[in-house]
């Protein structure tokens, strides 16, 4: 029997899938990613994520 996922689990899975997709697109195009680091937005090369 399969366990039903909670709405929080479904949301977390969807968010992780979206992040993987964005990182892959940025790696492919060579664009940096904007992330939060020490309370500030910074750009990092996609290949370092």
Description:
47% of the residues lie in helices and 20% in strands. By secondary structure, the chain is an alpha+beta fold. Strand 1 and strand 2 form a beta hairpin. It has one helix spanning 7-29, and strands spanning 33-37, 40-44. The protein has one domain. Strands 1-2 form a two-stranded antiparallel sheet. The chain is built from one helix and two strands. The radius of gyration is 15 Å and the shape is elongated.
Give, in order, the helices and strands. HEE
Looking at how many chains there are and whether they match, the oligomeric state comes to single chain
Please give the number of β-strands. 2
* Major β-sheet annotation: 2 strands, antiparallel
Number of helices: 1
Distance between the termini: 37 Å
Count of the separate structural domains: 1
Structural shape: elongated
SS-derived structural category: alpha+beta
Unreliable segments of 5+ consecutive residues: none
Read across the widest sheet, the strand sequence of neighbours is: 1-2
Fraction of residues in β-strands: 15-25%
Percent in helix: 40-55%
**Cα Rg:** 15 Å
**Mean pLDDT across every amino acid position:** 93
Tell me briefly what this model is.
With 49 residues, the protein is α+β, with helices and mostly antiparallel strands. The protein has one domain.
